């Protein structure tokens, strides 16, 4: 095998790990909010237990990339591919941690009935989940337009977050007995808002990969 062939094979391995990690993170986001909606404590525990695998995936991506830099000394776009792999893995790992945080809220609420049926929180989660899918797709296709779309989706999540916070603070004022659960749901909204920020970071990384310039899509 030529040196370039070995390099391309390792890059493909890196790409596959990122795609797999993105899929698992997307699933963790979905399951964490489903556990909250349904009060499904077993599902919440499944999300928490799955975090170790995602941490291991980030470590594998770091190992592959570090080995490539050390042995192949890549330059230009090849080097950018490895640098953004590190960044993407870090963002995905943080999103997985936030899904775990949502699952932990499910456990804290336990069997207590929800103060209201959840509508906007699942909407936020669906957008964050789609952003995860789209950000990985943008990376695979090196699609700058799709990457820039992250900014609009992030704005939608921010608006829902503000709406949820207003509603929950209203609950707390009207009925002090809802304070504890309202605060926990505020945390969930914040976790989902942060997930969208990390997906937007991946969009920025894709733009950097293709153009060599890193925009601020979270502005």
Automatic annotation (TrEMBL):
PANTHER family: PHOSPHATE-SPECIFIC TRANSPORT SYSTEM ACCESSORY PROTEIN PHOU (PTHR42930)
InterPro entries for this protein: PhoU, PhoU-like_sf, PhoU_dom
Assigned protein family: Belongs to the PhoU family.
The entry's keywords: Cytoplasm, Phosphate transport, Transport
Official protein name in the record: Phosphate-specific transport system accessory protein PhoU
Reported function: Plays a role in the regulation of phosphate uptake.
Gene: phoU
Domain (PhoU) ranges: 19-105, 121-206
Protein location: Cytoplasm
Location, primary (coarse class): cytoplasm
Oligomer and partners: Homodimer.
Lineage: Bacteria, Bacillati, Bacillota, Bacilli, Bacillales
């Amino acid at each position: 095998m030529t040196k370039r062939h070995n390099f391309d094979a390792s890059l493909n391995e890196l790409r596959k790990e990122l795609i797999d990690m993105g899929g698992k993170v997307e699933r963790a986001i979905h399951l964490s909010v489903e556990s909250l909606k349904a009060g499904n404590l077993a599902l919440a525990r499944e999300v928490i237990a799955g975090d170790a695998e995602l941490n291991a995936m980030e470590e594998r991506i770091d190992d592959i990339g570090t080995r490539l830099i050390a042995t192949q000394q890549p330059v230009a776009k090849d080097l950018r591919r490895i640098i953004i792999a590190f960044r993407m893995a870090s963002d995905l790992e943080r999103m997985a941690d936030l899904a775990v945080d949502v699952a932990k809220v499910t456990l804290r609420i336990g069997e207590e009935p929800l103060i209201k049926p959840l509508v906007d929180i699942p909407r936020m989660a669906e957008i964050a989940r789609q952003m995860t899918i789209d950000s990985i797709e943008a990376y695979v296709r090196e699609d700058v337009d799709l990457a820039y779309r992250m900014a609009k989706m992030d704005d939608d999540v921010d608006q829902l977050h503000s709406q949820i916070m207003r509603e929950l603070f209203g609950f707390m004022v009207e009925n002090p007995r809802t304070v504890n659960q309202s605060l926990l749901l505020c945390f969930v909204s914040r976790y989902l808002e942060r997930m969208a920020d990390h997906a937007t970071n991946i969009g920025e990384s894709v733009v950097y990969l293709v153009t060599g310039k890193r925009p601020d899509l979270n502005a």
